[in-house]
């Protein structure tokens, strides 16, 4: 568990709920904000969602692995905002 004060983590796209929950599992007081900073808006589907298909996955502009990349990068920045 990462011990931090409350933190906001923002992304351009709409992250899947499981991505936000994965961040919160490691950093409880962190909140993932979607559609921040406006330019590359689109769904960030997970690999599981892409395999199932559906609206978000079929309209995603990011690769299916991007959700976990977002989680990993967010957690790295919380550990060392450097």
What value does the average pLDDT take? 85
The structural domain count equals 1
How many individual β-strands? 4
What is the first-to-last residue Cα distance? Answer: 19 Å
Rg from alpha-carbon coordinates:
13 Å
Residue share in helices?
40-55%
Total count of helical runs of at least 4 residues: 4
Strand order of the largest sheet: 1-3
Q: pLDDT under 50 segments (min length 5)?
A: none
Largest sheet features: 2 strands, parallel
Strand content: 5-15%
Bulk shape: globular
Summarize the structure.
With 82 residues, this protein is of the alpha/beta class. It has helices at residues 17-26, 47-52, 55-58, 66-79, and strands at residues 7-10, 14-15, 30-33, 43-44.
Structure commentary:
This protein has 82 residues and is an alpha/beta fold. It contains 4 helices and 4 strands. Helix 1 packs parallel to helix 4 (66-79). Helices cover 41% and strands 15% of the residues. The protein has a two-stranded parallel sheet. It has a two-stranded parallel ribbon with strand order 2-4. The chain has one domain. The mean pLDDT is 85.
């Amino acid at each position: 568990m990462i011990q931090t004060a409350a933190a906001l983590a923002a992304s351009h796209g709409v992250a899947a709920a499981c991505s936000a929950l994965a961040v919160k599992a490691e950093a409880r007081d962190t909140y993932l904000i979607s559609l921040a900073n406006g330019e590359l808006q689109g769904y960030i589907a997970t690999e599981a969602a892409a395999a199932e298909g559906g609206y978000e996955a079929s309209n995603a502009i990011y690769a299916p692995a991007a959700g976990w990349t977002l989680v990993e990068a967010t957690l790295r920045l919380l550990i060392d905002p450097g």
